[in-house]
Amino acid sequence: xxxxxxxxxxxxxxxxxxxxxxxxxxxxxxxxxxxxxxxxxxxxxxxxxxxxxxxxxxxxxxxxxxxxxxxxxxxxxxxxxxxxxxxxxxxxxxxxxxxxxxxxxxxxxxxxxxxxxxxxxxxxxxxxxxxxxxxxxxxxxxxxxxxxxxxxxxxxxxxxxxxxxxxxxxxxxxxxxxxxxxxxxxxxxxxxxxxxxxxxxxxxxxxxxxxxxxxxxxxxxxxxxxxxxxxxxxxxxxxxxxxxxxxxxxxxxxxxxxxxxxxxxxxxxxxxxxxxxxxxxxxxxxxxxxxxxxxxxxxxxxxxxxxxxxxxxxxxxxxxxxxxxxxxxxxxxxxxxxxxxxxxxxxxxxxxxxxxxxxxxxxxxxxxxxxxxxxxxxxxxxxxxxxxxxxxxxxxxxxxxxxxxxxxxxxxxxxxxxxxxxxxxxxxxxxxxxxxxxxxxxxxxxxxxxxxxxxxxxxxxxxxxxxxxxxxxxxxxxxxxxxxxxxxxxxxxxxxxxxxxxxxxxxxxxxxxxxxxxxxxxxxxxxxxxxxxxxxxxxxxxxxxxxxxxxxxx
Length: 554
Hints:
single chain; 554 residues; alpha+beta; Phosphorylase Kinase, domain 1; Jelly Rolls; 3 domains
């Protein structure tokens, strides 16, 4: 029997009834077949007589059979029959990720969960000293029940003659798979699997959030730590499956249950037999019960052991936002810039001796006040005439002014009058949510810090709800080297101007970071204030501004 005689209807090795050709890889053929002994569907890889890959396939089958993780499809049999080498594997009903991505990218939760499942399977495999060697959208299958199955452990690499590969190459390939799942673009050196190539700027791969709106920043950061060369913000690169599992678990939790509607997505797609309807791939999903659980201790240990670095910080925002923390959040501050004690920090109690000293000090203060009143009364009586009228009226102090304090920001919007009128509008609310861990970023600009020389500036307009006195605006920044201005409407202070010409500058600072305090020469009356960035810090191959929090004060 030759490779050519293995055809639909043929009985291979007296057991496997060949059904249909699934693929052909460099002369090797992959068939769907039926194991007539156990009455189950299987996949059979067949090499022709004398194929030089025969020994590679036998060796790969032995390694695959030793894998215990249920997410890998098992190798059931491998032998020769009438000169033909065949390898029998489990069959998984479902859809390969390759077909799912042909209809569009996945949601963030689905992409993160899928990558986490594959990374955990690889983590278990790498502990045995072996690797998969061919992780791709064609070797990851989402079953009818919404579970993940990884196809072709070692055998796929043998058929393609690519070698066994290394664990690091597996992790890099999984990073490409995560990127493609988030964006629908392929980040590898050449387009593959029917996907358009991912865009680059000045030789650097754009992050998923720069390619597709709505990608959670947490997953954007993880993708950059996998593929960035080097990662942005001096982040620690992810080079091990254990490190990736820990990072993804910090975002989506540790549950192995598929995201809501992942199973319905596959079932509907298989029933319809179509991949053109985007709703089959990316339906709205429900939020998990908690998005920022602590990284389990075993994952922290595995990350430190395999990556040689401390585990990533898993503090993230709500499920609707899933925004990451790139750095430790600064301690909360009061209006004087002093650190506020944590809410759960116990208040120190004074001793009895301290209380007595305080009581004595209060009594002494009361005595001084009484003496002062007596002296003032005597002076007034002395100045009165015989008729009892005052000859010299005492001076009166002006009424105290309203105490200064923060002004509540009722709304805000991005301001990009010289561009496409949009500068990350989805993240503007991060700058006044009271969380130092959430931020708003400008787009990345090339060549020059002054927004590439193509814009006068970009910024955020804050609505204070009503015309009020503004004495200063504090802007917490990320990075060093931001030039910024505080601007208010030129004409009517209760009307926001849609053009840059409608604003006037009342304070300006240069080379600022991490905190800038914009203080007008005198308090200004306005309903709207514009924080206007005119020069940005260096980031990677370009320049990008970033604001974490803005506070407006009377």
